[in-house]
Amino acid sequence: MPRIAVGWLVSAPLPPDQHRLDSAHHPTPFSAELAELVRETNGHVTVTVDTAGKVFVKDDEVAMNELVPKLTAIAINGLDERIYVRGDKAASYGAVMRVMGAINGAGFRHIALVALKEPDS
After folding, report:
1. Domain tally for the chain?
2. What SS3 state is found at 59?
3. How far is CA 49 from the centre of its chain?
4. Is residue 119 part of a domain?
5. What is the mean pLDDT of the chain?
6. Torsion angle, CA of 120/14/61/19, rounded to 10 degrees?
């Protein structure tokens, strides 16, 4: 049985970007939290799972069977490329794990799960 090794959990902001994620780019609306994660990870190879379970590589929606070929094509460092995976707060845990499993199964060694830091109470 394959095991998934998550490189590290990101809770600190990453380099900001000027890109804006909105429903004009994606037919399924994302939560404000996920839109913030998109802005924070610009410039990196990112895979996003939305609330409907749709998968996006950067801004492009991809079918699960297209995910690995797309990542392989854009990974400058080959299987050593760090892949950031982020899921909408309401995304299914199973959908996010299927995506991570596919990436890991393809041989990518550095998978980072991106999370928002909870506000202090």
Report:
1. 1
2. coil
3. 6
4. no
5. 75
6. 100
The DSSP 8-state label assigned to residue 108 in this structure reads -
pLDDT value for 59 = 83
Collapsing DSSP states into helix, strand and coil, what is residue 23? coil
Which CATH number belongs to the domain containing residue 27 in this structure? 3.30.420.270
In a domain, residue 33? The reply is: yes
Domain assignment of residue 17, given as a range: 6-114
Query: Is position 120 within any domain?
Result: no
Residues 31/89, Cβ–Cβ less than 8 Å = yes
Q: Which two tokens stand for residue 26?
A: 């994606």
Q: Tally Cβ neighbours within 10 Å of residue 111.
A: 21
Q: Is the pLDDT of residue 41 over 70?
A: no
Could you tell me what percentage of the chain is helix, strand and coil, using 3-state DSSP and rounding each to the nearest 5? 30, 20, 50
Q: Is residue 1 part of a domain?
A: no
Q: Which residues pair with 113 in a beta bridge?
A: 9, 85
